[in-house]
Amino acid sequence: MTREGQLTCRKTKKRNVTEILKQVQTKIQKLIDEKRQALRDLKAMQNRNIELTRQIKQMEERIAELEKKQIWDICVDENAENNFESNNIQLDMDEVKMTEIDLLLNGYLNNLAETSKN
């Protein structure tokens, strides 16, 4: 091989190596970007889980309050057994409380289902 042919061959090899290095660098950068996005997604999920945990705690506290109020209302109701109108009002309030508990539980289940989808 002539001197000129050897130089051309070296330049071609160098160009091929440079192109391969650029491709490798591009692939590595793409993987790094994907990992960063996955980390951001994970942090977002963690924040969502923290928020859902907070909401669940609030719902549990609200349910406990309603249960305490219901126990108190039952005691009041026992003292007013002979008063038919009072008993009817108490029943209406119990229905309202149960509806509120149902709404809280439905909200919790919807949030849980939404989180499971994500």
Automatic annotation (TrEMBL):
UniProt keyword Coiled coil, yes or no: yes
Record bears the keyword Coiled coil: yes
Keywords, ordered alphabetically: Coiled coil
Stretches assigned to coiled coil: 14-69
Protein name (database record): 7800_t:CDS:1
Native source species: Paraglomus occultum
